[in-house]
Structure formats: C-alpha cells, structure tokens
Amino acid sequence: MKRRDFLKTVGLSGLGVWGACVWPSIPEAHAQRTRLSVFLDERLGKINRNIYGQFTEHLGGCVYDAMWVSPDSRVPNINGLRKDTIQALKDIRTPIIRWPGGCFADLYHWCDGVGPREKRPKRWNWGGVGESNAFGTDEFLEYCRLCGAQPYLCLNVGSGTVKEAAEWMEYCNGKLPTEITESRAVNAHAEPYSVRYWAVGNEVYGCGGKFDAEDYARQYAHYVNFLSPLGQDDPVEFIACGNTQGEWNQKFLEALLKLPYGKIGDVQGLSIHHYFQRGPGVNFTDADYYDLLADVSTLESYIQKTISLIDHYTQGGPHIGIVLDEWGMWHADTGTGAMVLRQSNTLRDAVLAAVVLNSLNQFGTAVSMANIAQTFNVLQSMAFTRGPEFVLTPTYYTFDLYQPHMDAMGLKVEIDGPTFKSEAQGMEVTRNYLSASASLKESEQKLCLTLVNQHLTDPLEVEIELHGTGSGGMRGALLRELTSPSVHDENTVDKPTVISRPVEKRVSVKMAKFVLVIPAHSVQALRLEL
Predict the structure, then answer these.
(1) Is the CB of residue 153 less than 8 Å from the CB of residue 168?
(2) Which CA distances in Å does 376 have to 82, 87, 270, 346, 382?
(3) Burial zone of 215 (CB within 10 Å; 0-12 exposed, 13-18 middle, 19+ buried)
(4) Peptide linkage before 151 cis (omega within 30 of 0)
C-alpha cells in the first residue's frame, strides 16, 4: 500500500509528528516504514512497578554529595539528606532503591552506621577510599521515605554473620521491646521500618565471597532459616544471588533441594546482573551504537534461560521472580579518584535504557524487579551533582517517560518492519529498528505505548493498529518525545540542558488505526484515552 493510500484509509485523525512539525515535512525517501500491532485482549500480566528501581552504593559520589551532604551543608537538605535528588526520584515515582551494594555490602557492618554520627567508626571502603558511615541505615530508610520508594537491603554474607543479619532485620522490622528495637527508638525511630526486600549476599560467586553454587545454597538456607521467623509479622521477600554464567543457577537450586528441609519456597527472587559496554561514552562509532543495542538480545537470552529454569523447578508452585538488581551502561572511559566510575550520559544511553525497559515489560510477571546502576554520579546515573550544582541526565528522562507502565497490564505487541543486523555473544543477531511495549490501565481506560526508533539517521513511519476489546475509538492522546540532533549529545554540569525534559502535548487520535512518525534515535511515550 502506498503512503497516500494508507492515509486515505486511516484518515487525517491519525497522527504523525516530527519535532514540532506535522509529518509532511519528512522526506518520503528517508522515512522507514514499519507496522505495530497492539493486542488489547492478550495480557502478559501486570508490570511490576519495581522494574523501574534504582541501585545505590558507597562508590564515588553516589551517596556522599548526592544523597547525603550533612545537616550543616549550604546545599538545601533535610537533616543532611539532599533535597534536589530526593525530589528528582519522587518526580519519577521511583518505586524501590537497593542499598548498600554491590560489593560494598559484603564489607559493610550495619552497626557502624547507626547511633550518634560523631561516634561512628571510620572504615576502609572496598573502592579504595575512606568510609565515614555518616550515611547509614536510618539515613537511607528516611531517604526512601522522603522520595516515596521502598528500601531493598543487601545482607553481608561475604564477611558478615547470620547473627549480624538477624539483628539488622530486627532493628529494621522488630516490634517487640528488645535491646535492639529500643536502640532504634533512641535513634529517633520508635516505629518499625517494615523493610520487605532482603538480598542474601551480592555476587557471592565473586566479590561477595567466591562461593560455588553448592556452598552458597547451604549459606542461603542457613540465613533464611534464622531470618524467616523475624519476617512473620510483615511480608518479607528473600532474594537469592544468581549468575548468568554457566550452570550456576541450576546447581544452586539443585543443592538447595538436597538440603534437609530445603525448599524452593525459601526463594522469592533470583538475582542476575548484566552490564553493557560498547566503545567510549561519547565518541563511539556507528558500529558501537548498533552493537550496543544488539546486546539487548544477550540480556533477553539470559532472562529467558532463567525463566525456563525457574519454571522447571517450581512447576506451577511458588513464584520466583527474576530480579535484575544491577544493570546499565558501563563505559570504558569512566572517572577515577574522587570521580571513580563517573561517566558521560548521552542520548545513546537513554535509548539503550528505553529498549531494555521495553524488553522487561514484555516479560510480564517473570521479572519482578530491576535496579539500574547507579542512581547518582556513578555509571548510568539519573543525575550528576557537584557541590550545589545538579543536572538530570537523558537516562533520567527515559525513566520519566515510562512511569505510566507501573502496575499496568502488559499487552502483547507485534512488529513488522525494517531491521538491522549486528553481533552479540559472537553471533549475528537481527533486531527491529522499532522497539515497543504497551500496557493498559483498565480502570482508567488508558493505554500507554513506549516506542524507540533505533535508526541512527532515518525517521520511522509507524502504522499502529489496536486490536481487541476497547479498540473502537479514542477520546484523545498525549505525546512526549525524547530526542536531540545527535545521539552523542549529553548533559553535563557545565551544560545541563542540552537535552531537556520532554514536554507533553495533546494530539488528535480518534481511530484504532493511525500513523506515528518517530525521529531517528529517539524515544516516544504515547498515552491513549480509550
């Protein structure tokens, strides 16, 4: 069908947008054509809001200067907690924050970080810098409360003990009048925090202790045995440390089942980690760009393999969610010293984040949490700080666009259109230039589509068609678009608004079949009122 014939079919109520211009400004010769089908009656399960989680660790400037500045700082704060970063996470409705690590968790002793700050011991940090312990359990949990996020705590298995872990859980959740809960009251928090999510170690196959899968299974069962009774009054979920390499996850679950009274039900989540790295942060090549986006296939293969394994061992029994509690871009050219792991954040990073989030949405209920690394100043961060200065990154704006998916019903989508080929894991992979996910909030009759045009230079002309119940007509639509002239564009402390927050504009969509034009290397969020 020719373009002009298609337009006669769908009518001019279909929308096409190129920046602020209507779509006749797009040269037909350069517009790639693709079709997107959205099936309103084919449900993938509710998208867990925790997929949009954050990860914070005592590395570089992630905590100190970004989350904690001290009560006497000239940077606006609430009892030492930095106000602008709190507000930034609140604005994107951050659902959950993982802390204190990472590798830092397995050298962290929670008792060092409670009580009067002037009496807290200064310790060595695995990152090679000193740790003041000024930011500890009470500070972190208050930070979460202020920005509206749930806390996700990682227990020290590498250098800690079961006793230490149990006392930490009692400090956070205990309700009986014990020495530990009374110490919490002395520290100005009489009521329990009711922390739900607890990771039993971090990367225990590496920096978390160099366990093999069988030894870790015994350690995991040992911890859960003593911690479970402390979680009976409030819902508590334990996340086991998994691994994408080899047969680690299979060996762990097998060993757990062989233990006396070992059971799959002791595992509510299985964590995996995945980082992306292709070329430098800013001066990457076109090949780096496409290879990076093709690498999402690697993550998808790890998730699918883990789903199959979990299905085999649960066989319709207790649900084990996949917890991707570390993921993101890790450039080769990160900072050093006080700026360790601080890296550029370009539009390419934002595009990658959008493609990953679209993919996670399509896995339905199988993925129960994901935490991008790391929230501030480290790796693929949401924002940079430097003293009083504060700047949001393009990746932050991706998370902003994806808010409507939280707790919505994931829908099946099908894409038929042009593709690109690249290499991942030593194999050639084929990916659609269009990346998309869809969700429905039935009570509000609102459909959210998030769309990514991964083509470096050409716009995509997308023919979108809704199928199924409720697709008869539209009351309207709101569109937001994240783009910039160059995919190499970035926000820095010195140039904070090269890429700005996408503005929302109302567009006319009245039919279940319409056209949307997406600029090259850009992300769009379309909210349809059914």
Answers:
(1) yes
(2) 12, 13, 25, 15, 6
(3) middle
(4) no
Residue 171, Cα to own-chain centre: how many angstroms?
28
pLDDT in tens, 262-307: 788 899 999 999 999 999 999 999 999 999 999 999 999 999 999 9
Q: 92: which 2 tokens?
A: 């994107």
Closest by CA to 372, choosing from 389, 350, 347, 348, is 350
The active-site residue, picked from 131, 326, 461, 463, is 326
E strand intervals along 206-350 = 237-241, 269-276, 321-329
Q: Which residues contact 141 (CB under 8 A, 6 or more apart)?
A: 151, 172, 189, 193, 195
Q: Is the dihedral of CA 291, 293, 297, 303 positive or negative?
A: positive
Residue 203 annotated among the catalytic residues of the structure: yes
Q: 326 catalytic, yes or no?
A: yes
372: Cβ contacts below 8 Å, ≥ 6 apart? 53, 54, 55, 327, 328, 353, 380, 382, 395, 399
pLDDT bucket at 426, cuts 50 / 70 / 90: confident
Query: 16-48, pLDDT tens digit by residue?
Result: 333 322 232 333 435 678 999 999 999 999 999
Q: How far apart are CA 454 and CA 435, in angstroms?
A: 7
Q: What is the chain's alpha carbon radius of gyration, rounded to the nearest angstrom?
A: 24
Structure tokens at 240: 């086991």
Active-site annotation holder among 131, 167, 170, 203: 203
SS3 for 505?
strand
Q: Output the pTM of the full model.
A: 0.93
Average pLDDT score over residue span 512-523: 94
Task: Find out whether 40 and 467 touch, Cβ atoms under 8 Å.
Answer: yes
pLDDT tens for 392-423 read 999 999 999 999 999 999 999 999 999 999 98
- Domains in the chain and their CATH numbers? 3-45+409-529 (2.60.40.1180), 49-405 (3.20.20.80)
**Segments in 191-270 forming alpha helices (H):** 213-227, 248-258
Task: Please tell me the predicted confidence (pLDDT) of residue 189.
Answer: 92
392 forms bridges with which residues in the sheet? 383
Residue 251 φ/ψ, nearest 5 degrees: -65, -35
Is 368:10 a contact under the CB 8 Å cutoff? no
Helices (H), 363-487: 394-401
Tell me which DSSP letter residue 205 carries: T
